[in-house]
Specification:
The structure is a homodimer of 465-residue chains. The first copy, chain A, has 465 residues and is an alpha/beta fold. Chain A has helices at 18-30, 54-59, 73-78, 144-155, 169-180, 200-212, 260-264, 312-326, 356-361, 414-423, 427-430, 447-461; strands at residues 9-14, 36-41, 81-84, 87-93, 98-103, 109-113, 116-119, 123-125, 138-139, 161-165, 184-188, 216-218, 223-228, 234-239, 243-245, 248-251, 255-257, 289-291, 298-299, 306-307, 340-344, 347-353, 366-374, 385-393, 399-406. In chain A, the strands form 7 sheets. A 5-stranded parallel beta sheet of chain A has the order 3-2-1-7-18. In chain A, strands 9-16-10-11-12 form a 5-stranded parallel beta sheet. In chain A, strands 21-22-25-24-23 form a 5-stranded antiparallel beta sheet, with helices on both faces.
Chain lengths: 465, 465
C-alpha cells in the first residue's frame, strides 16, 4: 500500500481534560477532518471540566455540576473529535506508533495507531499509604467523579464533623467548602503553618484567619491512621498523638504527575516525576509526541529549574501551544513564574516567584521585606488590611517573589509582580510603576509599590560584599 | 560674612499638597534641621490632602474631611517643616534665589531666600469663560476648600437637580457623588461619549451604564451660558440648543498646570503648559530648582512624548524623588504609561497606554481588538462581564494600550497591562503570562490574556507591508 501524500494523519490524545482537549480543539481549528483525524481517550466520564471548580461545587457556590464542564464529549464530537470515554490507555508503543487502550466497561483492549501523540494524563492525588485510607467516607477531590462521590457521602451522612488532611490550596478550599455546608471543620497539616506554598510567616496569617473563621487548625501533625467504625466507615483521623473524630475525611495532600505510562515507555521524566518537554511542548528527544498539563514539568523562569505545578490555567496554555504546533502552526510556552491565588471565605492568598527556601535552594541571596497596607485609600469605606512580602536578589535587586495575604482586592494584585517577574524587573524599577490609582481601588502608593520601596531600600543598604 | 561650610541650607517649597510636602518630608528624613531648613508656602488652609478623595467626601462615602488629610500642618511642623498657610508665592527671583510671598489675610509681602527650590504649584481647574460661571451654586472640586464650599451649597439648597459639566474622571465621579446625595443628575459633555480618556467605543459602554444608573447623559453639548435667577444663584445650564435646570452645578472640565509663576520667571514649559524636568525631577537647565506634581509634564514611555497628568499617585512619586535628590540621595522618575482607574457606582473604568488617536498622532500603526469576558470563572457566583480593548503595534506586536470597562474586579486588572507596557512586552509575550488563576478570581484565561491572544493573532495575520 502506497502512503499517499494526501493520507489523513491521526492525532491521538491521551486524557480528555484541559490540556488534552485544548490541544485537540486547537489542532482541529487549524486542520479539518479531511486532513487530521483526532481520537481522544479519557478514562472518566467527563471532558474539559474545571477541576479547580470542584471545591466550589462541593461547597454549594456552584449548584450544577454541568456548569463545571466547559465542553461536553458531544460538543467535541460535533467538531469531529472522536472522544472515547471510560477508555484507559494502558500502554504506549512509541516505536510502533500506537497506543493500547482498554474499554473500562467491557474490558476489551485494542491498539490504535497514531501519527502524532499528545500525552495529557494529568496528575494523581497523593493517597497516604495508611490503614483505612480507602474506607468509605474518605475522599479525594481530583476529578468530577471524586466530587460527586464526596457530595453523595455528604448527603448520606448525618454527622457534621469533617477532617481535611492537608492545608495547601485544595485543603484550604475544601475547608471553606465544608464550612459552607455547615460542618465543623478540622484541618490536619503536616507543616508548621498552612499554605506551604507561602513562607511560614505568611502562612501564619492564613492560620490565624482560618482559626478566626471557626476552623480548627492542627499543624505539625502527621496522620498515622484512618480509623473506621464497626460499619467499616471512617470514624476518626489519628495523628502521632491525637485522634480527630470524623464523619467525613477529605484528602488534599497534593498531587503527583500521572506518568506511569510515559515512564514505562521510556520517555524522559524530571526530578518531580513529570514529563520533560521543549519550548514547543514536544517531549524531549521525540519528533511526534507532545505533552502538557498536570503530567509535565515546567521551567520556572525565576529559578531556572523545572518544577511541577498542577493548575488549569497552565494546562489550557499548554493545550493551546500543542494544538497550534500539531496543527502546523508555531507557538511556545516559555515557562512559569509560579503564580497562584486562592481564598478561604473572604481571606485572599496569593503568591508568585520564589519563597525564601526556594531562593536558598537555587543559590540566590536576597532581602525579604514585609509591609502592611490597605486595599483602598485608608479613608475609603471597606479599605481592608493587606500584608505583602517581597523578596529581591542581593546586588542586582531583581524581584524574586511576592506573597500577599489580605481580603477583597488583595489576591489579584499578585499579577503586578507576576508580570514584573516575567520581565526581570528590579524592586527599584517597580517603585515607579504606573499602577491604577483612585481611592476606591488603592492607596496613593499601591501596597505592591510600598513593598518595592522597602525592598529596594534594603538592597541598597545591604553591605554584603 | 564668610559662607561657612556648615551653613544651614534653606529649602523653599511652593505648594503644600502631595508633591511639595512629600518632597519636604523625604528631604527631612535624609537631612536634619541642623543641616536643612525647610519652608513650605501654601495658599490654602490644608496640607497633604487627597484631592482625589473629594468626590467620595462630597458623596458621603467619607464622612470626615479630616480623613482626607494625610498630614496636617501641625504634624509637618513637628518634623521641623515650617509650613506657612494662606501664604501665596507671587514672584520667583531665580537669579537672586528668593521668592516673594504674600500673607493672604494681612496682605503683607516679603522675600524669602532659598538655596534649593521646589515648585509644586499644582493645577487649576479649567473654568469656562462664560457668563454666570462664578455665580453662587457653581462649584469646582479641586481643593478641600472647594469641596467644603460645595457641601455648604448642598446643605443650603432645597432643589435636587444637579448638572455636572464635563464627563472625565472628575465629572463621572461627581455624578456618582451627587446621585448618592439623592440628586437628579445630568452630565453635560462636550465629547461624543463620556470618558474621553477612553476610545469612543469604550466610552459608549460607560455612557450606557451611567444611563442605566439613572444619570441623564448629554453628549456633543457645548455649554454656552450659566443662567442665574433673580437671587443671583444658578438656575440652569444652557448649551447651544437646550437648557438644563440646575440647583447646583459642578464643573469638572479638567485642569491645567498652574505655572504662571514659572512662566513669569522664564522657566521651561512644554506644549501642555507644564514645567519640563529631567529624570531627577529637576527643572531643565536649572541646578537648584525642582518641580513635581500637577504642575509638570511627564514623559509618556509609550509615545515618547511629554504629557500632562494630574494624579496624586504621580505627585507622591515626584515628591519622593525630589526629596531624595534634595536630601543628597539619588532617585529618578522615568515616566508614566498613562494608567488611570475610576468608578461610577459599581461600574469600573480603567485605561493605560495609548488610545487609537494617541497612537495615530505619534505615527504608530496598530491593531485594535475588543473582547468580552468575565471577572471570575463563568460558573462562579457574581462573575461579572468585562470588556477589554487592546492596541498592539503592527509588525512588532508591542503592546500600546489597554482599556477596560466592567464591574467588580475589572479596574485593577489594568495593572497587568501597565507593567507589560513598562517592560515593553508584545501581545504575543503576554499570551503566556502566568497570572493568578482560581475560579473566584478569574476565568482560566484571564480577560487580559484573551485580549492578548486576539491582538497577537491580528498582528500575525496583518498583511501590511
Amino acid at each position: 500500500m502506497n502512503m499517499s501524500r494526501t493520507r489523513r494523519e491521526r492525532l491521538v490524545v491521551i486524557g480528555g481534560d484541559a490540556a488534552g482537549m485544548s490541544a485537540a480543539s486547537q489542532a482541529r481549528r487549524l486542520k479539518g477532518p479531511d486532513e487530521l483525524e483526532i481520537v481522544a481517550f479519557e478514562r472518566g466520564h467527563f471532558t474539559s471540566y474545571s477541576a479547580c471548580g470542584i471545591p466550589y461545587w462541593v461547597g454549594g457556590d456552584v449548584t450544577d455540576r454541568d456548569r463545571l464542564v466547559a465542553r461536553t464529549p458531544e460538543e467535541h464530537r460535533a467538531r469531529d473529535i472522536d472522544v472515547r470515554l471510560r477508555t484507559e490507555v494502558t500502554e504506549l508503543d512509541l516505536d510502533g506508533r500506537r497506543v493500547r487502550a482498554r474499554d473500562l466497561d467491557s474490558g476489551a483492549e485494542s491498539w490504535t495507531p497514531y501519527d502524532k501523540l499528545v500525552i495529557a494524563t494529568g496528575a494523581r492525588p497523593v493517597r497516604p499509604d495508611l490503614p483505612g485510607a480507602d474506607a468509605p467516607g474518605v475522599h479525594g477531590v481530583q476529578t468530577l467523579d471524586d466530587g460527586q462521590a464526596l457530595l453523595d457521602t455528604l448527603a448520606g451522612t448525618r454527622g457534621r464533623r469533617a477532617v481535611v488532611v492537608g492545608a495547601g490550596y485544595i485543603g484550604v478550599e475544601m475547608a471553606e467548602a465544608l464550612l459552607n455546608r455547615g460542618y465543623e471543620v478540622t484541618v490536619v497539616n503536616r507543616g508548621s503553618e498552612p499554605m506551604s506554598t507561602l513562607d511560614p510567616d505568611m502562612g501564619r496569617l492564613v492560620h490565624e484567619a482560618m482559626t478566626g473563621l471557626g476552623i480548627t487548625m492542627v499543624n505539625d501533625a502527621e496522620v498515622t491512621k484512618i480509623l473506621t467504625g464497626d460499619d467499616g466507615r471512617v470514624r476518626a483521623v489519628a495523628t502521632q498523638d491525637r485522634e480527630f473524630p470524623a464523619d467525613v475525611v477529605v484528602l488534599g495532600i497534593g498531587v503527583r504527575p500521572e506518568t506511569a505510562l510515559a515512564r514505562a515507555a521510556g520517555l524522559p521524566l524530571g526530578t518531580h516525576g513529570g514529563l520533560l518537554t521543549d519550548r514547543s511542548m514536544r517531549v524531549r528527544g521525540r519528533e511526534d509526541v507532545w505533552a502538557g498539563g498536570d503530567c509535565v514539568e515546567v521551567l520556572d523562569l525565576v529559578s531556572g529549574q523545572e518544577r511541577h505545578i498542577a493548575l488549569g490555567t497552565h494546562a489550557n496554555k499548554h493545550g493551546q501551544v500543542i494544538g497550534t504546533n500539531v496543527g502546523g502552526g508555531y507557538a511556545t510556552f516559555p515557562g512559569v513564574v509560579g503564580t497562584a491565588v486562592s481564598k478561604v471565605c473572604d481571606l485572599e492568598i496569593a503568591r508568585t516567584g520564589l519563597r525564601e527556601k526556594d531562593a536558598r535552594r537555587v543559590g540566590l541571596r536576597f532581602v525579604a521585606v514585609t509591609i502592611e497596607s490597605t486595599s483602598r485609600a485608608g479613608y475609603y469605606p471597606n479599605a481592608s488590611p493587606m500584608t505583602v512580602k517581597m523578596l529581591a536578589e542581593l546586588r542586582t535587586g531583581r524581584l524574586l517573589g511576592v506573597q500577599i495575604v489580605g481580603r477583597e482586592g488583595a489576591g489579584k494584585r499578585v499579577d503586578i509582580a507576576a508580570v514584573a517577574l516575567t520581565a526581570g524587573m528590579t524592586a527599584e524599577q517597580m517603585t515607579t510603576l504606573d499602577l491604577g490609582y483612585a481611592p476606591p481601588f488603592s492607596p496613593v502608593w499601591d501596597p505592591v509599590l510600598v513593598a518595592a520601596r522597602k525592598a529596594a531600600a534594603k538592597v541598597r543598604s545591604s553591605t554584603t560584599p
